[in-house]
Amino acid sequence: MKILVAVKRVLDYNVKARVKSDGSGVDLANQKLSMNPFDEIACEEAVRLREAGVATEVIVVSCGPTVCQETLRSAMAIGADRAVLVETDAALEPLAVAKLMQHVASKEGVQFAIFGKQAIDDDAGQTGQMFGALMGWAQASFASKVQISGDTATITREIDGGLETLAMKLPAVITTDLRLNEPRFITLPNIMKAKKKPMEVIKAAELGIDIAPRTATLHVSEPPTRKAGIKVADTAELVKRLKEEAKVI
Ligand code: AMP
User: What is the pLDDT of residue 105?
Assistant: First the structure.
């Protein structure tokens, strides 16, 4: 069984996002970009499934500019077998990415796909679900445990107030929650090995797929700066201030 893992290159989670001066978006110039953390978890899970003999091959796929090859190399250093870059400089919405992933998944004949539950740049949380719908596959989002036996995947999901366990027939897609696993440390020998693994580049423009955006960003702004807090002398003063000054927002 082949597994497809979707890997997005995003602003590193340690970097404070800065808005462009014209308010048209987030300024990515000279910033550190790296693999979306939920996609690292997705890679780790796929590699564990291959190591357990459940999967035969892990293919990592990214849609974006040439530089995404670096992110795909990191995914192969975790242990993925090969990579596909669907290359485009266009700004991609979740539906466009889902369509490009549909193309790759159909061409490769994958049976299982793992997406992150959300990309930490735009927080859409849509791509895996849209991909599932386009493929006509079963889907389970926010997976915190994955077991595959024969043609059945049993997925535990984190929901409000507890855990839900679903069974679904393959082919299927899941999206990863934070607690699914802890990605392994990437070692230098594995970084070196990853440099030699196959990387296919497909030009998105040559696929005849409509990836035009359906929405327009009108304005992006920084969150309002928080007012400094105050120190109170004792609990009595705290209660008094809460009664008299605190407002329900
Ligand atoms: P989103 O729906 O944008 O929050 O993204 C959810 C997940 O879809 C991410 O964690 C990735 O696994 C995948 N994804 C989104 N955009 C891309 C992209 N440009 N290339 C590869 N995977 C992507």
Answer: 98
- The Å distance, Cα 92 to ligand 1 centre, comes to 10
Answer whether 38 contacts ligand 1 (Cβ < 6 A): yes
Report yes or no: 176 and 117 within 8 Å, Cβ to Cβ.
Answer: yes
**Mean pLDDT, all residues of the chain:** 95
pLDDT band at residue 247 using 50, 70 and 90 as cut-offs:
confident
In this structure, the residue with its CA closest to atom 6 of ligand 1 is 118
Number of domains in the chain: 1
**C-alpha to C-alpha distance for 97 and 220, rounded to whole angstroms:** 22
Residue 186 domain-assigned (yes or no): yes
Is 45 part of any domain? yes
Could you tell me the residue range of the domain that residue 41 belongs to?
Answer: 2-224
From the centroid of its chain, how far is CA 88? 18
Ligand 1 atom 14 nearest Cα = 8
CATH number of the structural domain spanning residue 83: 3.40.50.620
